[in-house]
Amino acid sequence: MFERSRCWLGAVALALCAQAAVAAEAPRIVALGGDITETVYALDAQQGLVGVDSTSVWPAEAHKLPDVGYVRQLAAEGVLALRPNLILATHDAGPPPVIAQLREAGVRIELMPTARTPEGVVAKVREIGRVLDRDAAAAALAQRMAAQYAELAKAVAGMKSHPRVVFLMATDGSPKAAGRETAAASAIVLAGGTQIADGFNGYKSVSAEALVALAPEVILLMREREQEIGGVDGVLRLPGVALTPAGKARRILFVDGQALLGFGPRNAEHELQLQRELAGVRP
């Protein structure tokens, strides 16, 4: 009987060790980048999330998770305090020394490449699905997005004109325009608009004279700043805006910045929404 009891206790001990091993391997994921976080939720893998960055504003459930700071200005200590065993990050997560510190700490880091084309966005979804072992869910999501992008391409091809568009980032009354190699520029072109601030890279402050000279027919801003800036009337008070064709026609559009510019799972549907708006503009 003693021998039987000892065997039983040994079996229990082995079972407990096995459970502990499984628990130790349970995913503890930190998502860095709003598009990354959205994709994790879209693939129903959020159970493993233990932290996100400050750009992860959607879905609302993400706000309940610890915030490790802005994706490009991270501190290794804050991330490591969450004891992650996987960090899923956008391509520009950093600064680089912090990413190096996290790697040196033994954390697995998966950096997603820049994705500002339909093909790139769909590939990013599939890659995140592979990393999270959610291949089937990723395939279904990718198929749905590809269909939306195909619908978008057909709609853009049928547009009779492609209005002149500028994206403004309004800060303290001094607007900055999105130039080449920005997410906003890619989003405008993808939706069938003509990106007119193409004389510079990145974001650049524009004077009233420069904005009038650009002659935008549509001005885009982030919806997240709409209340702060005072809506359309507030935008019209920015230097030069009221003198542009967009200002005179009050064609000021507030778009969901994360959905449209983040190039995540919601990008295709929001590109379609913008395309419909642009298609209604008459020269």
Structure commentary:
There is one protein chain. By secondary structure, the chain is of the alpha/beta class. The chain folds into two domains: 23-112, Rossmann fold; 161-279, Nitrogenase molybdenum iron protein domain (Rossmann fold, 3-Layer(aba) Sandwich). 46% of the residues lie in helices and 15% in strands. It has 13 helices and ten strands. It has helices at residues 2-25, 34-42, 76-80, 96-104, 118-131, 135-157, 183-190, 208-214, 226-229, 231-236, 245-248, 257-261, 267-279, and strands at 29-32, 49-52, 86-89, 108-111, 164-171, 174-178, 194-195, 203-205, 218-222, 252-255. The protein is globular and about 60 Å long. The chain starts with a helix and ends with a helix.
Write the layout of secondary structure elements.
Layout: H1 2-25, E1 29-32, H2 34-42, E2 49-52, H3 76-80, E3 86-89, H4 96-104, E4 108-111, H5 118-131, H6 135-157, E5 164-171, E6 174-178, H7 183-190, E7 194-195, E8 203-205, H8 208-214, E9 218-222, H9 226-229, H10 231-236, H11 245-248, E10 252-255, H12 257-261, H13 267-279
Parallel strand pairs: 1-2, 1-3, 3-4, 5-7, 5-9, 9-10
Antiparallel strand pairs: 5-6, 6-8
- Using only C-alpha atoms, the radius of gyration works out to 23 Å
Tell me the fraction of residues in β-strands, as a range: 15-25%
By CATH's scheme, which homologous superfamily of the largest domain applies?
Nitrogenase molybdenum iron protein domain
Domain count, please report it. Answer: 2
What is the average of the pLDDT values?
91
